[in-house]
Amino acid sequence: KDMNSDELLSRYAAGEREFCLANLSGFNLSEVNLSGADFSQANLEQAILRRTNLSRATLSQADLGAADLREADLRKADLSGADMVGVDLCGADLSLADLTAADLSRANLS
Description:
Blueprint: H1 5-13
């Protein structure tokens, strides 16, 4: 089901954490707390997630192609099998993140 960023944030604030398969392509979710949320197989292509708290979030098999994750908190995040082609991870914290089989082609990791 499609939703806008305000709906996503209000549902998260209300305690919802399951956003599997959500279409969040191009969303601007900078500087918000989405810790522990489940975005498995979600479409986050070209999303702006700058300085977003995604610690302990599940992003397995999510499409993060060309997403802006600069300075994002991805500690202990599950990014297994994620499509991260062209993603910008400059300054992101990937401590203990699971990147098993994630596609980081053309990603900016500096």
